[in-house]
Amino acid sequence: MRARIALLAYLAAIVLGTTVHEIEVLALGLVLVLALAGRDWVRILRRACIAILLFNLVVTLSYGVIAGLQGTFSLAFVVLVNLRVLLLTCLTFLFVSRVNAFEALAFSRSLTYLFTLAYSQSMAFKQALEDFRLAFKSRRIEQVGLRDRYRHSASMAVHFLDKSLHRATEITQVMRSRGFFDA
What would the DSSP string read from start to end of 77-116? Predict the structure, then answer.
């Protein structure tokens, strides 16, 4: 029951975080989330910053170029968007670290089933990524150049994309054959 209440609180906080358009309120929300994290606040903040770095960089630079050309650039908007993404990401990492999602979704067989599929897929990809990393590390004698690392990363990305498309098709067919989409 506690996990379900935490899930409802998390969903309410997500909705609230996306509807608030004031920097001060979002900053207060971020401080509150980090306070709720207790001793783990540094770890959660660090993980969130790493997770959103590329996304926020692309969005901010794109906005800066387009708004700069149109003459409508607003630093407050950039801060608002980046702060909102950071708040929602920290909130998600806090929720994941404190709540058992299987227990929180136990009220619905369908949601539990979908979450189980997603979780098993992510664990399979995590294991494959570790296997790729160890294979790359074991096959090199000297320091690998940046070009070779990019090639290795690109081949891993192609593999993961192909694998995810194949698995998604397979799982959809299995779910359809069992009448999952009919209900």
Answer: HHHHHHHHHHHHHHHHHHHHHHS-HHHHTTT-HHHHHHHH
Q: What is the pLDDT of residues 94-142, one digit of tens each?
A: 999 999 999 999 888 888 888 888 888 889 889 988 988 888 888 777 7
Dump pLDDT digits (tens) for 133-146: 888 888 777 787 88
Q: Which residue reads 């069992």 in tokens?
A: 178
Q: Give the residue extent of every domain in the chain.
A: 2-103, 108-182
Q: How far apart are CA 23 and CA 76, in angstroms?
A: 8
Whole-number Å distance between alpha carbons of 155 and 43:
31
Burial code (b: 16+ CB inside 10 Å, e: under 16) for 141-166 equals eeeeeeeeeeebeeeeeeeeeeeeee
Do 18 and 115 touch, CB atoms closer than 8 A? no
56 pLDDT more than 60: yes
Please tell me the distance from the alpha carbon of residue 42 to that of residue 46, in angstroms, as a whole number. 6
